[in-house]
Design goal:
By secondary structure, the chain is mainly α. It has 12 helices and 5 strands. Bound molecules: tryptophanyl-5'AMP. The site of tryptophanyl-5'AMP has 26 residues, from strand 1, helix 1 and helix 6.
């Protein structure tokens, strides 16, 4: 079976952009592919964050996956930091990553500009290497993400090819390995609509967990009243009527796209039930990380061997 992996950061609130751009598209894939969905808590510490809120946000995100329809009889859900191979492979991969590749990442440039010099951690720069580890550890075929992750996926593909070139092939066979490629080169799956849900208050910026105003996004856990209020207060324009794809009317285009994607869909509200059953959630995450670690460790051992380390 071909494999699919994806993840969301447990930072702030999961919003409609995360849902329409990513989580919603994971659901049908569960039926055809071997699917693993993780909560990327190690990525969430790359910008200043509240330690008291990280574990809560991690559980919330897992409960949201389940509420959105991730089915644990088909897919595994786990927490990135619970599978140690992610951080470990990242170190190995970072030795094969030219720093210039990281310097040109659009998200790094944007986030570091907003954070100000004092708050730009090394981890913000090396973030895409960790993301590449998340994907390459599982020999993934497809990665369903929103538009903003496209560049990170391209870096992942280039890095996989580079490691295969540097350490794979005959070199690996000589060392007693199976030869051939170390990593599978994954393909992104970016949805045609919903890949970039825009802010409610600025049609030219994407809806974002880190935007200061909560009015700029619809969170999956917002109540009906809060959502209605946000929609009433969101930015529109002075032209009459509605139209798609008019560059002069980005907010109008965004609202119509969201409506198109959401209308006619009633999502079962399972979140409250799930988050209050902590034993169930713990079980799901423990089973998920056990299964993930088995796959990840096999890849990691292979990489250590290919790179010439002494076997344990
Ligand atoms: P994150 O947590 O910022 O976003 C999670 C997913 O939501 C998508 N997304 C959007 N889609 C449409 N419109 C928007 N306004 C919008 N905002 C966010 C993102 O594209 C993403 O698919 N680095 C990743 C998490 C990650 C990951 C991975 C993903 C870490 N390792 C491995 C896939 C595979 C991130 O920060 O996503």
């Amino acid at each position: 079976k071909k494999r699919v992996v994806s993840g969301v950061q447990p930072t702030g609130s999961i919003h409609l952009g995360n849902y329409l751009g990513a989580i919603k598209n994971w659901i049908p894939l569960q039926n055809t592919y071997d699917t693993l969905f993780f909560i990327v808590d190690l990525h969430a510490i790359t910008l200043p964050y509240e330690t008291q809120q990280l574990s809560r946000a991690t559980r919330d995100t897992a409960a949201i996956y389940l509420a959105c329809g991730v089915d644990t009889s088909k897919a595994s859900i786990f927490v990135q930091s619970h599978v140690r191979a992610h951080a470990e492979l990242m170190w190995l991969l970072s030795s094969a990553t030219p720093i210039g590749w990281l310097n040109k990442m659009i998200q790094f440039k944007e986030k570091s500009r907003k954070a100000g010099d004092e708050n730009v951690a090394v981890a913000l720069l090396t973030y895409p290497v960790l993301m590449a580890s998340d994907i390459l550890l599982y020999q993934s075929d497809f990665v369903p993400v929103g538009e903003d992750q496209k560049q990170h996926l391209e870096l992942t593909r280039e890095l996989a090819e580079r490691v295969n070139y540097l350490y794979g092939g005959r070199k690996l066979k000589k060392l007693g390995g199976r030869g051939g490629a170390i990593f599978k080169v994954p393909e992104p799956l970016i949805p045609p609509a919903g890949a970039r849900v825009m802010s409610l208050t600025d049609g030219l910026s994407k809806m974002s967990k880190s935007a200061p105003s909560d009015l700029s996004r619809i969170n999956l856990l917002d109540s009906k009243d809060v959502i209605a209020n946000k929609i009433k207060r969101c930015k529109t324009d002075s032209l009459s009527g509605l139209e798609f794809d008019n560059p002069e009317r980005p907010e109008c285009n965004n609202l119509l796209s969201v409506y198109q994607l959401i209308s006619g869909k009633t999502k079962e509200i399972r979140y409250e039930e799930i988050i209050s059953d902590s034993a169930y959630l713990d079980r799901v995450l423990a089973e998920g990380s056990k299964r993930a670690a088995d796959i990840a460790d096999a890849t990691l051992n292979n990489v250590y061997q290919a790179m010439g380390f002494l076997r344990r």
